[in-house]
Specification:
It contains six helices and no strands. With 159 residues, it is mostly helical. The protein has a domain of 86 residues. α1 packs antiparallel against α2, α1 packs parallel to α3 and α4 packs antiparallel against α5. It starts with 6 loop residues before the first helix and ends with a helix.
Length: 159
């Protein structure tokens, strides 16, 4: 039996939508003006989703509840990645997109992967400690390279 309820993933998705609403408000010059309101509506939709699913706790099992809460979290994470891609591709703000990716997208994805794998530990699935180790090493190597273009220039000049 897992100690995390499946509805935790819906709450995590709501938190991602609320954080995205706040971030798009703070970066209002880079995003459309109505995007924070769309994220707030998605967060309210998540709360309504949790309120409605409370009535069906006896009808659906843990597996069904996990999948529809996980789907909501996946939509929230997809919106987070789409906002990062929008900054990089549509607005041509590569530096801001790199910072956004390293400070917001990657930690959010790692935290979500941690909780999902913790919930799925009762099943045969992802072995998280090895995955976290490789992710931490990749993050530790890539952040200095992404944030300082001089290192990349020196590396490419040697070749």
């Amino acid at each position: 039996m897992s100690y995390i309820l499946p509805e935790f993933f819906a709450f995590l998705g709501v938190d991602v939508f609320i954080a995205m609403s706040l971030l798009t408000c703070l970066l209002e010059d880079h995003f459309p003006k109505n995007l924070p309101y769309i994220f707030q509506a998605a967060a309210i939709g998540g709360y309504v989703h949790i309120l409605i699913s409370k009535e069906f706790l006896g009808l659906f099992g843990d597996t069904m509840r996990f999948w529809y809460c996980f789907l909501y979290l996946a939509v929230a994470l997809a919106n987070l990645i789409a906002a990062n891609v929008y900054l990089a591709v549509a607005k041509q703000r590569w530096t801001l997109a790199k910072i956004f990716s390293g400070a917001i997208v990657l930690p959010t994805l790692l935290i979500s992967a941690f909780f999902v794998s913790n919930y799925m530990s009762q099943f045969a699935g992802l072995y998280l400690p090895l995955t976290m180790l490789f992710s931490a090493v990749a993050l530790g190597i890539s952040i200095p390279l992404l944030l300082s273009p001089e290192i990349k220039r020196k590396y490419w000049k040697r070749r």
